[in-house]
Design goal:
The chain has two helices and 16 strands. By secondary structure, the protein is an alpha+beta fold.
């Protein structure tokens, strides 16, 4: 009987510790705008409809419906806009873009931040860029508006280009075996079409 009580106490203590870790997940930002339907999946598996002012927690997964948009501001002075039909996982200084479009505006020059897809990584400090990923085609595209972003093949980090403002590049397994395309100036219509999905 005494052993059973000790096991129950230990189990309760372990449950309480695990609950506290989940309850006090690190907050990395706040939602600043929501248009349409979007929700966040927490580490514990709960799905919550997003609204302005909600916390963005580390390891959270955000989804936007078709026609929806979400913006959040993190504690590193980055504004992140997620376009329609987008899915991301947020992990402190790294965001995994699983599908869709995102626009990042960085207002500091701190290094060590990245956005990754299944085949590419964009490393950035200050500046502004739009990153898209088509999970059906396994195609990642980067358009840099200001600053410079290092665009790299995820498996072979020696395959990269530094993409400057006004240029775009993409990584697609069907193009040059996954080597990033040489950065090219973006056309006015293409730029407006991409930016228009966030307005």
């Amino acid at each position: 009987m005494k052993q059973l009580l000790e096991i129950i106490k230990s189990s309760l203590l372990l449950t309480l510790i695990l609950f506290s870790f989940n309850s006090f997940s690190k907050t990395i930002g706040r939602v600043s705008e929501v248009v349409g339907n979007a929700f966040i999946m927490t580490q514990s598996g709960d799905s919550i409809n997003l609204k302005v002012g909600d916390k963005v927690l580390d390891f959270a997964e955000i989804f936007t419906d078709e026609g929806a948009r979400v913006s959040y501001v993190d504690y590193f002075e980055h504004v992140v806009h997620l376009g329609p039909s987008t899915q991301v996982v947020i992990m402190n200084k790294m965001i995994e873009l699983k599908n869709g479009k995102m626009w990042i505006q960085s207002h500091n020059n701190l290094a060590g931040f990245s956005v990754q897809t299944s085949n590419a990584v964009a490393n950035y400090a200050d500046g502004e860029f739009i990153y898209t990923y088509d999970s059906g085609q396994l195609s990642s595209q980067l358009l840099v508006i200001s600053g410079t972003v290092k665009f790299t093949n995820i498996l072979e980090d020696h395959l990269f280009y530094n993409v400057d403002a006004g240029k775009f590049s993409f990584i697609d397994q069907k193009y040059e075996k996954g080597f990033p395309r040489v950065p090219t100036l973006i056309g006015y219509e293409s730029y407006n079409g991409l930016v228009g999905t966030f307005s």
